[in-house]
Specification:
Elements lengths: L41 H70 L2 H12 L20 E2 L6 E2 L6 H13 L6
Antiparallel strand pairs: 1-2
Protein name: Septum formation initiator
Organism: Janibacter hoylei PVAS-1
InterPro entries: FtsL/DivIC
Length: 180
């Protein structure tokens, strides 16, 4: 048959008619679409292994990205936290210094008055005006100073620096004739 065009055989799943140019496909299934066959046996297990491996890879990548993000942001967060702590400490220090400045200004203002200077001279230096008498009251209930029984001398608290007290203590401990 020379002159007659050949027809292509219809694809499986397509309707028996061939499509002509300009015609639309029937609603519903498209031509050539295959329904997935249910997998059984080894093929199903292989597909499940591939899906599991893919899921594992995704979690590993996600975990790695989160770890990288944490490593990058942790020093920044720690620096921010340390700076906030330092800022709070400096705020407390400024507040304390402002209170100290107010107290010193109040004292400066007091020392500007003659009455306060006179009161401090009387109290601290035991100054009196001509014709006045001063009395010093000794508290009888105060602790009595220690008295050395052998010499009768009053033992005053040591005024030596700590390092001299230690060296004299070591020397006394080494001396066999020192009283214990």
């Amino acid at each position: 048959m020379v002159g007659t065009p050949r027809r292509r055989p219809a694809r499986p799943g397509a309707s028996g008619a061939t499509r002509r140019p300009g015609t639309t496909r029937p609603a519903g299934r498209t031509t050539g679409a295959r329904t997935p066959r249910p997998r059984t046996g080894a093929a199903a297990r292989e597909a499940q292994k591939r899906r599991a491996a893919m899921t594992t890879r995704r979690w590993v990548v996600l975990g790695s990205l989160l770890l990288l993000l944490a490593v990058m942001l942790l020093p920044t967060g720690k620096s921010w936290y340390d700076q906030r702590q330092r800022l709070e400490a400096l705020d407390q220090q400024v507040t304390a210094q402002e209170a100290n400045v107010e107290d010193l200004q109040r004292q400066r203002d007091l020392w500007q008055t003659d009455e306060y200077v006179e009161a401090q001279a009387r109290k601290r230096l035991k100054f009196v005006k001509p014709g006045e008498r001063t009395y010093t009251v000794i508290d009888p209930s105060a602790d009595a100073p220690e008295v050395d029984p052998e010499t009768g001398a009053v033992k005053a608290p040591s005024t030596q620096p700590w390092y001299e007290q230690i060296s004299s203590s070591v020397a006394a401990a080494d001396d066999p004739n020192s009283p214990r």
